[in-house]
Every structure is written in C-alpha cells, then in structure tokens.
Amino acid sequence: MLAAVLTGTGQDKVEVRRDVETTGFGPGKVRVAIRATGLCHSDLSAISGKLAHPVPVVLGHEGAGEVLEVGEGVTHVRPGDRVTVNWRPSCGICGLCRRGQSNLCPSGAAARHVTGFTAGGTDLYRFVGAGTFAEQIVLDAGFAAPIPQDISYEAAALIGCGLTTGFGAAVNTAGVQPGDTVAVLGCGGVGISAILGARTAGAAQIVAVDPVATRRKWALEFGATEAVAPEELADAAARHTEGLGFDHVIEAVGRRAAVRSAFEATRPGGNVCLVGVAGPEEMFPASLMELFAGEKRVLPSVYGGADVTRTYGRIIDLVRAGRLDIESLVTHRLPLTEIHEAIDLMHRGESLRVMLTTD
User: What is the mean pLDDT of residues 148-163?
Assistant: First the structure.
C-alpha cells in the first residue's frame, strides 16, 4: 500500500513507500479508503520538528474517504458511507466534553501515541492519530465523522481540519459579531478560512495581512475588504478603527513577531485570537502590565475552539445553502507520489491547499 512516511524530524524529505500495511482492525475500529487528503501546515511543522511527534509516522490528518468495513460495536457509520477524519475525537463524557469543549478532550491528544501501520517489520505511528497520507487507514471509531453524500471528498477533507480551524476561530473563539472590525495575520488555508468565518459572521471590515502578494490576492477573493503587507498593518488599523485597533485580530502564523503584531493591532478590550502553532520555546510577547492596562483578551483556539462536530455541521449547512464556497480553497491537486512538490508549493506561498490523491 502507498503511504508517505516521516522517519525522523528535522528532515527535508518524506519517504513515499509502497510496502506499508494497516494494522489493528477489530472491534471499535473503522477501515477507510482515503479519497482526498490536504497538505496542512501542521504536517510541515512535524517534518521540521517544530511540532513534536513520535516517529516513524505516516503523515496527514486533513482527509476524507469511504468506509470499507467496520468492527464490532461500530454503529454510527457503515460500509459505503462518506466520512471526514476527526483528528481530535472526544470521549463525550469527561468534564470538558460536558462543557461543550470537546476539542480539548484528553482522548484526542492521547491518539498521537497510537500506531496503525507497519512497513518492513517496523510499526508506524498515525500522525495525530490519523495518518491520512495513505491509501487506507484503520481508525478508532471516533475518528470517522459521517459526512453527507452530497458533500465532495475534497470539501469533506477541508472540513476535517483547516476550514474548521480557521472558521471556528472567528465564529466560536473570537465571537465575531455583525459590524465588527477584524484583521487576519497569515493568509494560508487556515487564515483564509478565518476570513470566511468573519465574513459569514457579518464583520464590517476584514483586513488580511500577508507578505506574499498572491496570498493577499486570494484573501480579497474570499471576502477580505482589504489586503496589506505586514508593514502596512498599523496604517490599516488607523484608517479602519479611528486608531483604536481592531475588535479582533486572528493570528494564523505561529511566530512570536506575528503574535506581537496581533497584540499591538488589537484595541483595548479586544480579542487576540491565536491559531498558529508555535514552537515550545516561543513565549507570549507581552508584559503583564500590558495585559492588565489594555484588558486585551488573549484567546488561543484549538481546532475551531468548541464542539468540533457541531462546527462541522454548521459549515455543511452553509455549504449546502450555497453561502460558503470551500472547494475553491484547493489551488493544486497532485498524486501522493509528488508530495515533495506539494511541500515546495506551500513553502513558496504558492498554494492555499494542495489536495493529494492515491488514485
């Protein structure tokens, strides 16, 4: 079976192998044929070592496919169903789940330490419990979230990670309201999804910030009212907010300097929403006095910031109503064997989402 394997962090290359096999199918499990899987920045962070993960590991977590078979006790999906991979499944009974914060359920975090493949006599981990850069995967049942048949596999894959993460950050975590002013720092797939969320919530001004001109152009196409380079952010804040700063600044970069820019561009009492994944050595770049004096709310957002499946449902309803075009987020389609070209496209800022296929 074809799969993309990372054998060690801090490497530039991913091994595309054809001798990988799934393991662990049985009660409570679901076997899925992957039909579409997107290259997300978190995959790049795993490759670079910025995001620590056990290796060797089959990468990929933003995926969707068709259920091939289900183990004993699995009742919510059946063979032939279309599913997206929920890489942060919840137990449904812990205190966080009962509070509507299933995105923080400890069972999801524990899944990164689970193997699900083998190759050459070596067990391979599933990246964050998923491992969608493979022709087939065996998942714990909670990872397989049913998706209506009229939602395409590509759309379902996007809903499984980048779209839910960015859209949810704007709607759930930041709580954008009609008439609010919003700035989004970083206009990759997650940042553009945050723009879609802010637009859907009725923001009056959405300023997209990115150093890459192509990404600024895409941001305008997806609903930003203005797109500027990072050095132009302060001027945009002065023009659109009477110098107060934005009601919400959503940081989708994951770098200390970008977080500082987001903090400075937020008005007193406003929301600094952190979506980008930073390395463990990065510290929040503001003093306690600044936090106290400005009363700015710092709001990290994990996987859309609320009950994940509820956010899935809201997005699906908007797609079906024709109010949310998400397939346009896919700028490139490549076979899994060309994953290094996909990585290069993302590094160069020339793609929003590369969708990989194993066909």
Answer: 96
